[in-house]
Specification:
Strand order of the largest sheet: 2-1-3
Number of helices: 11
Order of helices and strands: HEHHEHHHEHHHHH
Number of strands: 3
Distance between the termini: 69 Å
Shape: globular
Mean pLDDT: 83
Structural class: mainly alpha
Radius of gyration: 22 Å
């Protein structure tokens, strides 16, 4: 009875395959990217909240992205770093922990899309309705939009995982380096038709709504910029929109690469590496894009480095 309970509650993660020569470089690389992603995103959030000049809707909404990036990287990376030095036969995770990890992975992905949609709405209001922007994008509106982005993703993912945990399990091996919904319902021998239907619907709603909203936003912005002869307005629009669009395109390309690799079972190892890199590098990429491309944040970072350097000179 004890052995049966153990086998039902413990899941084996196949994970990434590393040779003895590549395990240490892979560990160091992932660790450095993870530390950079966490430190840079936390620093940006702290900088925005402590700088009165940055208390603007665009930056406050971006804090949602940074917090979500830290959350997404932390839920996956430490577990993968631990498994790098473990034999594949010893990479265990409890079923409850696997469900929690899958929930957090999908919540991170869903919130990324909903937050980017909210940020697209903010850019649309700022450029297409500049005279009404301050009256519409108040602090209360920023809070409502932020809560709406997180709540929408939370509800959709809760239903997604709720349909999966109702299933019984007859398998105990997951072929991915971390848990997700598809890996969890693949453990069942029951019919998973409902899971597939809702999963496809969830993906279609999330991706479809984000692609449509972002596309319409930038079409409207492009039309306004073409009609306007104000070079300063066009320059500001290009600066802020390029940053947002770069993050969104990188997100879509990452998802597209993983979906394509799913179609080729012989490339399963490449898919695993790609999924891990997307979970780790996307948060770091977002921090770099917003930290270096947004003029106000770049100026604040430069000022902080300059003040630290002056302090070191005085100490010498």
């Amino acid at each position: 009875m004890e052995n049966q309970t153990f086998s039902e509650d413990i899941i084996l993660l196949e994970g990434l395959k590393f040779s003895s020569q590549s395990s240490i470089p892979a560990f160091v690389l992932l660790l450095l990217i993870y530390i950079f992603a966490v430190v840079s995103n936390v620093s940006l959030v702290a900088l925005i909240f402590t700088s009165t000049s940055l208390h603007q809707p665009m930056y406050l909404l971006f804090c949602n992205m940074s917090i979500n990036d830290v959350f997404g990287a932390t839920i996956v990376t430490p577990h993968i770093l631990r498994d790098i030095f473990l034999p594949q036969s010893e990479r265990y995770i409890t079923y409850i922990d696997c469900v929690i990890q899958a929930f957090c992975v999908h919540l991170y992905a869903g919130t990324t899309h909903t937050v980017l949609m909210v940020m697209a709405f903010d850019r649309n209001m700022a450029i297409c309705n500049p005279l009404r922007y301050t009256t519409i994008m108040t602090n209360k509106m920023v809070v409502r939009l932020s809560l709406g982005a997180w709540t929408a993703a939370l509800v959709l993912v809760a239903i997604l995982l709720g349909l999966t945990i109702r299933l019984s399990r007859c398998r105990h091996v997951i072929l991915n380096p971390f848990c997700d919904n598809a890996s969890l319902f693949s453990l069942s021998c029951e019919s998973v038709l409902i899971n597939h239907i809702y999963g496809l619907g969830y993906t279609a709603v999330l991706l479809g709504s984000s692609i449509i909203s972002v596309s319409l936003t930038y079409l409207k912005i492009a039309a306004v910029c073409l009609r306007s002869k104000n070079k300063a307005l066009n320059r500001k629009a290009l600066q802020t929109c390029t940053t947002h669009l770069a993050v969104y395109i990188f997100l879509l390309l990452s998802a597209l690469i993983i979906v394509i690799l799913h179609r080729f079972p012989q490339l399963s190892d490449h898919r695993k590496v790609a999924s891990v890199l997307c979970e780790v590098t996307l948060p770091a990429f977002n921090a770099v894009i917003y930290g270096l491309q947004i003029k106000e944040i770049k100026q604040r970072i430069s000022a902080l480095f300059f003040s630290c350097k002056m302090a070191q000179i005085k100490l010498k």
